[in-house]
Amino acid sequence: MEKITANTSVIPDKGKIEQGNTCRVADGLIYYTIPMERIDQRAAIKKIEGCRWNPGQKVWSVADTPENRLKIKSIHTGNTGASDAPHWITVKRHPANTHYICLDLPIHLLNTYLGTLKNIHGRRWNRDLNLWEVPYTQITLRFLNKYLNHTLHWTFQPDENLPERLPETERAQQFQQQPTVTPARYEAAVLALEECLRLKRYSHRTIKAYKNSLRAFIRRYDDQKPSQITRKQINTYVHELVRDKHITESYQNQICCAIKMFYCEVVHQSEKVEGLVQAKKPQKIPQVLTESEVTRLFRAIDNLKHRTMIMLIYSAGLRLGEAIKLRLTDLQFENHRIFIRDGKGKKIAVPLWPTR
C-alpha cells in the first residue's frame, strides 16, 4: 500500500499525524484508521457517501476521489466545519411521534455532552433521523433545564400541559422495542449455549451477556463451524480485543467464560480451552463518599419515600434489585437486620444496618 503524502492533499504533513491515525490509498480506495476514543472523527467519516467499515482490518474505506480526499483531510486536521457549526443542542418536534422530541447533538459537542444526554430516562437513538429521541414529558424538561439549559436551542415553545411521564401504552411499547441483533451464520451454536445456561439456572443477565460474547466470537470466524475453530484462533481473537479495542479485564474474563462454557458443555471440546488465560483484575482503591457528601445527598432528596430507600440502600449496602424485592417481613427491627432474598449469585444474606 502507498502512503498518502503531502502531494496527495490528504495528509499535509507526516509530522502532524495524530497518534493512532493512519491513512493509505490502494486499489482506488482511501483507507483511514481512527482511534476508538475519537467519536467525533468516526461520526464524521460515516457521513461520507459509500463509506465502509472493515472489521477484519479495523479500517474505514472510501472511494479515492478528489472530494473524498478533501473530506478525509478535514476530518484528520479537525476542520470538519466545527467553527461554522452551531455550538448548541437543537431541540425539535418529532416528525412522527408526539410523545417524543428530538435532540440534534453536533459532532464537535459529542465529547462534552453525550454522557449527560445518555442520562435522560427513555432516550434512544433514531438511525433514520440521525437524532436523539427523548420523551416529551415534564421529567425530561426538568432534566434539560437543569443540566443542559445553557446549551439548548429550542425551535418551538414547549407545551404547558405536558404529562409527568409517558402514557402506559407508550412505555410498554418502548420496553418491547429491543435493538435487533444480527444473527451469526452459525446462530444454532448461540442457541445451544443458551439452552445449556438455562438448564444450569443462570440468571437472565448472565445468559444475555454470554450469548452476545459467543455470537461476536463466532462471527469473527464466520466461514468456519464453531467446532472447527482452533485454540490458536481463540487466543488471537481475545488478543485482538485487548490490543485494538482495549477491553477491560472484567469483559475479557466474561468473553473467556462464555467461550469455555460453549466448548466444555456444548460441543465437549474442553481441550481447546484448557488453561485459557484469564485477565488479572487490578486492585483498585474504592472511591468512598465523605460524610458531608452523603449528608448533602440525603438532604437533596425531597420525597420522603425516596430518601428512606436511598438511606436504607446506603446503610445496608444493598443492590437495586435487592432493595426492590424487600418485603416488610424482611425487616427485622429488633435485631437491626434485613433478610435479603435472591441476591447476586442467588445468595441469601442478612446484613446489619447502623443502630443510630
Task: Sum up the structure in keywords.
356 residues, alpha+beta, DNA polymerase, domain 1, 5-stranded antiparallel beta sheet, 12 helices, 38% helix, globular, disordered N terminus
Written description of the protein model:
This protein is of the alpha+beta class and 356 residues long. The chain has four domains: 2-77, no CATH class; 89-176, no CATH class; 187-272, Tyrosine recombinase, N-terminal domain (DNA polymerase, domain 1), CATH 1.10.150; 291-346, no CATH class. It is built from twelve helices and twelve strands. It has helices at 39-45, 66-77, 110-117, 138-147, 168-176, 187-199, 204-220, 231-245, 249-266, 291-299, 304-316, 320-324; strands spanning 2-3, 22-26, 29-33, 52-54, 59-63, 89-93, 100-104, 124-126, 131-135, 152-154, 331-332, 337-338. A five-stranded antiparallel sheet has the order 1-2-3-5-4, covered by helices on one side. Strands 8-9-7-6-10 form a five-stranded mixed sheet, with no helix packed on it. Strands 11-12 form a two-stranded antiparallel sheet. Helix 6 crosses helix 9 (249-266). The radius of gyration is 26 Å and the shape is globular. The N and C termini lie far apart (71 Å). Residues 1-19 have low confidence and may be disordered.
Write the layout of secondary structure elements.
Elements: E1 2-3, E2 22-26, E3 29-33, H1 39-45, E4 52-54, E5 59-63, H2 66-77, E6 89-93, E7 100-104, H3 110-117, E8 124-126, E9 131-135, H4 138-147, E10 152-154, H5 168-176, H6 187-199, H7 204-220, H8 231-245, H9 249-266, H10 291-299, H11 304-316, H12 320-324, E11 331-332, E12 337-338
Parallel strand pairs: 6-10
Antiparallel strand pairs: 1-2, 2-3, 3-5, 4-5, 6-7, 7-9, 8-9, 11-12
